Amino acid sequence: MRYRLEIILVLFILAKLCGQNKIYGIADWVQQQSEYLIAALQLRHMRLPHHSTYRRVLTDEIDAEELERVVGEYLSQLPRKGQDTVIAIDGKTVRGTITLEDPFGLHLLAAYLPGEGIVLMQMVVEKDKENEIVVAPKLLECLDLRQKVVIGDAMHTQRQLSIQIVAAEGDFVWIVKDNQPNTREAIERLFAPEKSRPGFGCPPMNFRTAKTTEKQAGRIEERTIQVSSLLNDYLDWPHVEQVFKLERRFTYLSTGLVETQVQYGLTSLTARKACPKRLLKIIRSEWGIENGLHYRRDVTYQEDQTRITAKSLGRVMATINNLVIGLINHQGFVNHAHARRVFNACPAKALALIVGL
Description:
- By secondary structure, the protein is α+β, with helices and mostly antiparallel strands.
- It has two domains: 5-153 and 290-355, no CATH class; 165-191 and 206-285, no CATH class.
- The protein is 41% helix and 21% strand.
- The chain contains 13 helices and nine strands.
- The chain has a nine-stranded mixed sheet with strand order 3-2-1-4-5-9-8-7-6, with helices on both faces.
- The protein is elongated, with a radius of gyration of 24 Å.
- The chain starts with a helix and ends with a helix.
- The model has no long low-confidence stretch (mean pLDDT 91).
């Protein structure tokens, strides 16, 4: 091979950091920076790879699972801003891999640290054979869950997964919807307003509450949580310590329109470990994987717009996107489009981030 594998990867990741998303654009950018890159990387060949070389190497020469493992280990050992205790799990379909022959495309389930902005690991979900419920236990089995709180959407509100997490010395916070109808009904009934009857008093409730108010995007959002431990001895759910009702109230400033959303949930965190204020924060952090990872991959990195017929290449591209997102987050950038313009203006900064030059 004319180009060593590590050189191909460095050039590819560097171009990603500097704002390129598609393989043609990556190859073109590298060619435009050839004089600098040949000198900086001390390359023997004066010609840099053609776009077909990147596609062939990333498809045929790289073990996607091995790359996933190496990237996950690297991101996990980066110095942390704090001890992030929340792991959010959620899946995403790489829509650029969907074809007439394969209408499911490549679907990946990721474990993400919202507070740090890094992906610990992601696994393939073979949607024609299984779903995220089957893959989630395998994903979490590979992670150190001690002192961690796992959160995910209602699909993952499963008894066996709850048992697995607590057995691994972790905790869970689940939203309960209609996939667990009896559990949802019991929690909803607990928080329903008690109707008093003549001659009878209302039973005492140990509800604890917290509330936050934020103004953004032309609306005021009020989030109110009520938490109780009254169902601990009655609810048919392993390791439950608290249940909650979360009400979100949106007031749109331009029209005065008010919308209300109500969710119910449960957690293995005791009242001592998680007061209502902390539970609000944990529940909100689940959106971090949507906004901080999936939205960025879709919009800033144009992942879904990149046509890739080979699933192996789609997985490699997704893993590299995760790496670049993690590196940029670790540098303290909030706006990734701005960060990539900064690196494009000075590729030496981006190269130093990758290889420590």
